[in-house]
Amino acid sequence: MLRSMTGYGRGSCSGENFSVTAELRSVNHRYADFFLRLPRELYCFEDRIRRLLQKEIRRGRVEATIALSGSPAAKVEIDVNEALAAAYCRALQKLAERLALPFDLGLAQLIQLPDVLRPPQTVPTDEQIWPFLEKALQEALENLVKQREEEGSNLARDLELRLEKLSSILEEMATLAPLCLEEQKKRLESRLGEMLGAHFDQGRVLMECAILAERVDFHEELVRMGSHLESFQKTLRSDGPVGRRLDFIAQEIFREVNTVGAKQQDYRIAEQVVKMKTELEKMREQIQNIE
């Protein structure tokens, strides 16, 4: 399916006490170019994000904005080693009895003893965040691709209509071609007759007409244009990124049209050349939006 290079997609995913939001905006670009706006905590995911985007985006400049709200750390729970605390109490109480000292151990002193309180165990940040970040990005990417495909369908319909116009113009040019050549031959004979009178070499005139016809004949250009139009239509209906190929084919058609305009000065052909150039310019503008 034909895709545009412009679009927007958004996705979000929430964890237990944090959430990730991803926004993707894409515009025209000759190649695939990714610009990432990330909070400091997510810098480590830059390569993963680029690889994920590259799976779907072949051409276009994509600006990815990732936002992280809340804290991705696990719940903070202090682990108390009650058995060790009790052992400290017993040992210190025995020591106080032996030394005939008052036993006045308080809680504040007890929790400062080694290993009574253990720091909380947390899941590594990157391993905790990535599944949620990946899901948010995937949702945003799907929405972006959907919008690019919808716009691509509109572009395809427009190009199909313009392709039909070009085919119609080409048929008109093919119909006019032999008439123009015949009229040029008659005009040449008439002018030579006026200049030379009744006594002139008809064989020589025919030879000159043949040489002139060879110079102004544009049948080959019309055939090539027809071939290019067929190729354009096949490419337009094919899968995958086709923008560059369509642009190349349009340039080839434009080249053939220019050749026809240079060879043939007949006003009717000139009119068709102008019409075809106008349609081609509009097509090339649209093609710049295609992936």
Task: List key phrases describing it.
single chain; alpha+beta; Ribosomal Protein S5, domain 2; four-stranded mixed β-sheet; 6 strands; 61% helix
Structure, explained:
With 291 residues, the chain is an alpha+beta fold. 61% of the residues lie in helices and 13% in strands. It contains 8 helices and 6 strands, in the order βββαββααβααααα. The protein has a 4-stranded mixed sheet. The chain has a two-stranded antiparallel ribbon with strand order 5-6. β3, α1 and β4 form a beta-alpha-beta unit. 21% of the residues are buried.
Q: How many DSSP E strands?
A: 6
Largest sheet: spatial strand order: 1-2-4-3
Low-confidence stretches: none
Q: Assembly state here? A: single chain
Q: Counting H and I runs of at least 4 residues, what is the number of helices?
A: 8
Q: Which radius of gyration do the C-alpha atoms yield?
A: 39 Å
Tell me the β content: 5-15%
Overall body shape: rod-shaped
Q: Could you tell me how far the N terminus lies from the C terminus, measured between alpha carbons in angstroms?
A: 10 Å
Return the structural class: alpha+beta
The percent of residues in helical segments reads 55-70%
Work out the count of structural domains. 3
Main pleated-sheet profile: 4 strands, mixed
User: What's the rounded overall pLDDT mean?
Assistant: 85
| N-to-C order of helices and strands | EEEHEEHHEHHHHH
